[in-house]
Amino acid sequence: MRWNDRRILDLFNIELPILQAPMAGASTPEMAVAVSEAGGLGSVPSAQYSAEQLREIMKDVRSRTRRPLNLNFFAHEMPNPDPARDMAWRARLASYYVEFGLDPAAPIPSTGRKPFDAAFCDVVEEFRPEVVSFHFGLPSDDLLDRVRNSGAKIISSATTVAEAVWLEERGVDAVIAMGYEAGGHRGNFLEMDMATQVGTMALVPQVVDATSIPVIAAGGIADGRGVAAALMLGAAAVQCGTAYLFSPEAKIPAVHRAALLDARDDNTAITNVFTGRPARGVVNRVMREVGPISDLAPPFPTAGSALAPLRMNREAAGSDDFTNLWSGQAARLAERLPARELTLALARGAQAALGRM
Amino acid sequence: MRWNDRRILDLFNIELPILQAPMAGASTPEMAVAVSEAGGLGSVPSAQYSAEQLREIMKDVRSRTRRPLNLNFFAHEMPNPDPARDMAWRARLASYYVEFGLDPAAPIPSTGRKPFDAAFCDVVEEFRPEVVSFHFGLPSDDLLDRVRNSGAKIISSATTVAEAVWLEERGVDAVIAMGYEAGGHRGNFLEMDMATQVGTMALVPQVVDATSIPVIAAGGIADGRGVAAALMLGAAAVQCGTAYLFSPEAKIPAVHRAALLDARDDNTAITNVFTGRPARGVVNRVMREVGPISDLAPPFPTAGSALAPLRMNREAAGSDDFTNLWSGQAARLAERLPARELTLALARGAQAALGRM
């Protein structure tokens, strides 16, 4: 397949302008290997692992493909402990604990997502992923320098032009323009107001105009038509997440898979109730009754802890009422294929759409 | 210029797949004439006119172009009088009246937008516009039959797949898939929850898949790249609004023009404070302090009456604090051209983007 815009292909040394979105908890090493072997860029999310776990994952992945890989990290700062706020959040959820026979006062283990740190950086230096991507901004300058010196190309997500310009000023090699349609955690880090987040169709060309680095379009792209449209907007590649959740390589609860199979264009919303940061998922009971945006939700990632017992209890009963059903607005467009075939189908679909004109 | 997908071109008998959005209050007969003469489809909004005023407008427009025209109407139902709710709304705004030396208890004239009715339908039958478009759904079956029997092609806006299917079932000839990015009043009529509205990138292909009529893409499209992207998504044409607000043919207050010149990707939001229905505009003081969405705002179009004295007072002082600054998320992309040149630039820009691939 021939691509006129080779900026991202040459930068990452890949064959297809398709990035698999790193989806902490849902992506698997198998998914990353399949996408990279197909010629796209497979991604390994790290925030759910310890550095030691990530080392084992990378050993495994590197043994199964010699193609370029993206290693993804979260760049948030861990909030200071705020027991009063945590208790207010548990109080908001207490009636659900009672409803399902759980003890609202029982200690709950902290479930969290770890930010990039020196220990993670050691893993980067050891395994030298070709691309390192960050979500929620960028880590401190010294850590960023270490990543850059490892030889990795660095990318991060922007949900506004201002965030894209901020990232370019700090030396990223490419920017992901993440539109309103995208599933999972939004990458926003300068702007916290969800009322002004920008749709992909408007965001991508404005980021292209405001920066001089290659732009990767994300949000609402789940088939070849979307890939072709993104290229028309000036993107050099796309990042797809939700479409890969239908692949057998995805590791998601049965209730999440069922919700995705039923997803419509208009039944997702951006919510902060699951983790404390805004993320798009299929609307369910806890989003309807507590959110979708709640001022009570403590900062990322601590909001998730108090939800965990409810989620486990309800999933065991076959209910998705308390599960984060991450999905973008274009789940319905996705061909339900293994990760390798999906990657090829996205690329071929784009070529077909481009060829029709 | 050659266009592979001729469905909308042949349906409306136009040369370019570009519709100028009807923008009640901002569009002018001059704008519609310029767009239609350029080969696109010019639109005349009607909701701000009486039937008699519209008759004069149509006489004028028809005398200046023989090209096809779109006559646009609102299809809302007028709400029953609800003095208690109106008073609660005036109470919410009373402190602003005091701040600017206005009498909060003075009678205020009702400023409104009139729905399509038999008198408007007489004008359609008299002037036989080639296209009649509706916003907020469709009028009653008997009126719709009269429009259809006049020979007009009928179109309306959908903000979700469900709305598009509803419109197709009622026999529209084409559907406008209006994404989240679009400026001005959203066309939503089945779904009132703004949290689940769909971005253009995700909406257009899902409407294409769910219907068998031609799809016109709207929302976030303000240059040739956006037009080309919409065609890739399967749209047969696009509708652009915000871009035309920069043309000399647009009739908008100076404060609105200034806000558009400063517009960024991330400083608009969807608000109901100006009219009672959700509409996207540049964020200003009343949106920040009262909205952007307020449960107190009475139903469309009555919310606007109590704002009118504040708007007039503040505009006279050069302030946009109480003015509805309608804009989509892509104002920044617009070339600032007269309506005829803009129409040609959108079409040529699309051809150039398509040609690059």
Description:
Two copies of one chain form a homodimer. Chain A has 357 residues and is of the alpha/beta class. Helices cover 41% and strands 13% of the residues of chain A. Chain A contains 14 helices and eleven strands. The first copy, chain A, has helices at residues 7-12, 29-38, 51-64, 83-99, 118-127, 141-149, 161-169, 200-210, 224-232, 242-245, 254-261, 285-290, 303-316, 339-356, and strands spanning 18-20, 42-45, 69-74, 131-135, 153-158, 174-178, 184-185, 215-218, 237-240, 268-271, 279-282. In chain A, helix 2 (29-38) packs parallel to helix 3. The first copy, chain A, is globular. The interface between A and B is large, with 52 and 52 residues.
Mean pLDDT of chain A: 97
* Oligomeric composition of the shown chains: homodimer
- Order the strands across the largest sheet of chain A as they lie in space: 1-9-8-6-5-4-3-2
CATH homologous superfamily assignment of the largest domain in chain A: Aldolase class I
> Which outline of chain A best applies?
globular
- Proportion of beta-strand residues of chain A: 5-15%
According to CATH, what is the class of the largest domain in chain A? Alpha Beta
Q: What is the alpha-carbon Rg of chain A in Å?
A: 19 Å
Task: Summarize the entry for a quick read.
With 357 residues, chain A is of the alpha/beta class.
